[in-house]
Amino acid sequence: MPGGQRLMLVDDEPDLCAMVAEYLGRHGYIVETAANGGELDKHLYHSVPDLIILDINLPGESGLDIARRIRARSDVPIIMLTAADEVIDRVVGLELGADDYVTKPFDLRELRARIQAVIRRNARAAVPATDPVALPLTAVRFGDFLLDLDSRRLMRDDGEEQELTAMEFDLLAAFAKNPNRVLSRERLLVLAHNRDTDPFDRSIDVRITRIRRKLERDPARPQVIKTMRGAGYMFVPTGP
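Request: output the structure for the sequence above.
Response:
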């Protein structure tokens, strides 16, 4: 049972809202509803829910615009509701920082499963981790490198700078701020704030492969950025 976790459903279809709220309520969730961005803002003014289910096709302000301004100030998990044929909306939603999407019409059991998965994933990411190197947040040491987050530079121990693209640095910084945690590909996209990147999984894999070539002593057997099969990646500042 979810233990009274609060969900906010934003959709302008009253019958759908009633059906979803009734179903999720039977499974232990507390569901509040809003028909548009204005009503959502009134709810958020008082408290932030554990997850927002946000329809893209809303009257007035679109769900994509709402997601953009929510993500600018909050990491609250967001699941987008999209039309089955609107692939571009799903892509844009993920680029804006949505955690997942469900296409209409949807099975209520699928929606519930996705809610559970997103909440679990974000709960794991929020668990504090101990930084074994105990350096200030502005600098992280690993292997033969020192990552300076303030100057956005990656320095070798011999004093030479290792060149990184802006996207590679953002991804490495996201890892450095979350040491020894398993991060899913979707979570890495959110943490790295890359708006011009293809949100599908393979884009993260490609960038991590490039970073490994620059950082790992043996890229084929990575010790700094490890692959966690079926879950994502984990940054390990101190290896064996």
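The first strand starts at residue 6 and ends at 10.
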